[in-house]
């Protein structure tokens, strides 16, 4: 039996304010952002090269299929792992699998057998499930209820700095590769591994949740207990929970488009060095997108429900415009890769495809930040939220596993674009319905789900100041 945490009452003495207070939600969310900068941030930069940095996408497609298949299972189980082990151990177990994955492609540069990358991908899928479940529980339960959007944006900016720096590594290390297709060199993989190992080491600095105190003196958590039997039963109930069923299409869509964008836009159109440069701006766009939607979701209107509904509308309009631009671009090369790849020095020829890829990054951050904000608004109990986020990450990863095999089987690029566009379009009205039915303007209750029904328990924690 192990401890988990729920929203607790105010502590006896007010907490000392200050940006440098180590047990504040701000400090711990920032630390979490740095850990994810080093681990999934660098992984994103590696994936963004297309084919894991290899000329042939086949090995990376198979490795990522294994990765996301295992992620689908362990993403759902990750919430239970967090509730049983706590965030520090759960994050450490997850982070250690990232350098192994990067190392498998370093090995592949010299020994072209798929066995190691595919096995490393499966292990990373399990580890990523743990890491992201712990991340989601922290992100949705530690911040003050009226500042969740701001904290999500802070995390997303720190996390995506990893993608920005990770894009500079292959750009600089492979600058003289010319316009011919080539795999990235050993130094690129070694640099990725070094950052990932640093991220794993930083997980030991994560504080136990019971020690986190907000600036108003309230503790973010208090101690309760969980057991494997309890967690197993609660996980099964998620699949009949109407809230999670409304989230399901958005979760499925939210990583499905990576395969198309990385392999068949960035990977198919640009030279090796330009792919790295593009990723600097792709992940930089994520920082802008998350900051913009996060600010709006916290400060856009007095009504939290209205902010959620308008947030869905804004993302829907921007998403429709961006995918429309993607269609216009895709019609120019539906036969496959360009023989004469685009280099960043090509001026006008480079500008349009670059702007599109930048916009894809912007949309990704806005869409996922919106989903996290909505999930965080469904409850205050981190035990419940860890399961919600685990469900979200599990479904998200199942979709990604399917997407990598769709690409592996050489589905037409136009078909892949329409599927991605359609999945996101379907999710918008369902997210709006979830906000309308489940997001309250006041934050004075915690929802728990038992047999698909809500049970509200009043807390002594302060309500949202809206």
TrEMBL record:
Main location: membrane
Organism placement in taxonomy: Eukaryota, Viridiplantae, Streptophyta, Embryophyta, Tracheophyta
Compartments reported by the entry: Membrane
Keyword Cell membrane carried by entry: no
Transmembrane segments: 26-46, 66-85, 116-138, 150-169, 189-210, 244-260, 280-297, 309-328, 354-375, 418-439
Listed name of the protein: Major facilitator superfamily (MFS) profile domain-containing protein
Keyword set includes Membrane: yes
Region (Disordered): 447-466
Keywords per UniProt: Membrane, Transmembrane, Transmembrane helix
Top-level taxon of origin: Eukaryota
UniProt signal peptide: none
Organism: Panicum hallii var. hallii
Pfam assignment, any one: UNC-93
Membrane topology: Multi-pass membrane protein
Any one GO CC term of the record: membrane
